[in-house]
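Exam revision sheet. Question 4 asks you to relate a sequence to its structure. Input first:
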Amino acid sequence: MHCSIRSSLIALVVACAMLCAGVAQAIAASPLPASDYAARPVCGAPVPGRARCLGSELVPETAAARERKHPLGITRAQAISAGAASEGAYGLRPQDLRSAYFPGIEPDAPAAEPQTIALVDAYNDPNSEAGLAVYDQEFDLPECTSANGCFGQVNQNGEAGKPPFPEDPQALAAREAICEQSAGQTQAGQAACLEVEEVHAWALESSSDIELAHAICENCHIRLVEASSPGSRDLETAEQTAARAVSQGGAGATEISDSWGLEEPLSDGAAFNHPGIVITAAAGDFGYLNWTEAEAAHARGASYYEGVEYPASSPHVIAVAATKLTLTSTGARQSETVWNEGPTVAGKDEGADGGGCSLNFEAPSWQREVSDWAAVGCGTGSTSKRAVADVAADGDPYTGVAVYYAAPQGGGGWRTYGGASISSPIIASMFALAGGAHGVAYPAQTLYSHLDSPSLDDIAEGGDGKCDGDYSSGCSGSMTPLSPFDCGAGVLICNAGPGYDGPSGVGAPSGLGAFRSGDAEGNDAPQKPAGSGGAGSVPAITLSGEDASPRNAGINTLLRRSTVIRVSDLRLTLAAIEALDYGWPAITQVAFAFTLSAGTRVRIALAKLVRRRGHWRWQVLRDSITFPAGKGRNRVHLRTRGRLNPGRYRLTLTPVHGDPLSLVVDIR
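Answer key, structure tokens:
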């Protein structure tokens, strides 16, 4: 076998990109204007004591939009010909989210720290697993089924096989018949009509939750916990079940995502206070203190509560805000701003990032200790009120995600979904990728420890109030802080700015660094000594350079949490290049060197480019390992479990508190 690697590989790639630039531009596909679509809340306004799912569907309103030949949220380098979800015709794909939030990192949780993500929703979704199968096939994801143990579906008491209403399509059809017979005129008919409407809405919500969780973390276990209704008691029972045991005799979830909200209660329920479990909650879809929905409802002669969403306002959870994410044609993040479409002139509520100050709950210490807390507007000192939100991720329906909706009675199809409903599972699943809470009682604290670091993308533009952060153009409405319309100029609870602010929290993720605490780096499973043998032995690792001695192996625990560690100059050693060039008969190890700006622990992942179902993807050859590396130059011998066959390989190094760096090697 002749094996070679060319140092000119990068130059060839660049030359090819320049040569093909004209062709790419000629066939590039750009998004249509937002006016070609309408964003519609999926769940209707709830009655007191009941929650609504915080999701919004993007609906095409023009012939051009209905053709599905234009991408959403990104200018594609290639034209969309088939109108398929895998082409980006229905919104962001799994690979788009990965490119935006954790480029170069495999979508797998650490093998030594298996993760279970629970999605708490209402009613039964009989076809959720079937819908997930369609989603996985479309995007070439590994199967996640009840048969292989990846997927599970239980009721609010943790029982499998005993679903809440509708138990099956026939039960839903019977309720629809009651609704139709009375035309919604009788009390029973009205109740039936409301329940039927809620079932379909929550089924779409359930689909988006489980599909996004699997899109972000491919090897995580997923459990759909179904409350009997959207009532607060049923949802809290389901939440307790998710934390305690997500199936009969099973272990509790390591992450729980709540993509719904209801009016804030007077006291915080015990259901959302589970130290050591990551619990995320959607901050809302209707702007600062729900002003967009309140204003739209007022125009219809109705009313809507003006306040923050719960459980997002609980100081024990991670409140997740929604952003407008724009990507480049290569999938990289181009910009991210506060989502705020606001009501249109015609009175349509297009949605906005939710948030505000809690009326009933105090701010946790890690929140009120941010340097700009006095400008937030939720009080000062120990009596400060909880501010929503803590962190942010994509949620604007115009930059939404593709979701396959398997309707409860069969059928369904692809949808474009947005709202804080997608922001919450994105953050929960990224915590899972990083290994969970790492023993931190309330993992929101981990996010705040990385404020103003490169692990977070600071969102400093826009606002979720009526003025959208702009007070220089004659904005109408009250300027009084904490008003129902806007918090006032310069107040950070509804205006984005550098550092912490209400509309985006500490910012959006940039890699996995923000999900790892300063105390978590030493929690990796101990590795076997190099050369210990056996199929599960780890690569032989040789360290050299400054601070490489064993006494400095834990030096990263002494670093400030805000320290940014850089890995650079990653290359094969001369011996490795020589071995490849001279065509050794079997390649069983790769020797490489790299430079660190400070001693820390480094993860190594080796992947091979493979073709599956017509799509190219990187397949990790072995579980990632973590080892201590010293400041300065390090040399490592990565021994594989077998011979490296011809193909293209990618070696990725990820230092704790740093961004990953990859090297692509061709073996022929």
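Marking note for examiners. DSSP finds twelve helices and 28 strands in the chain.
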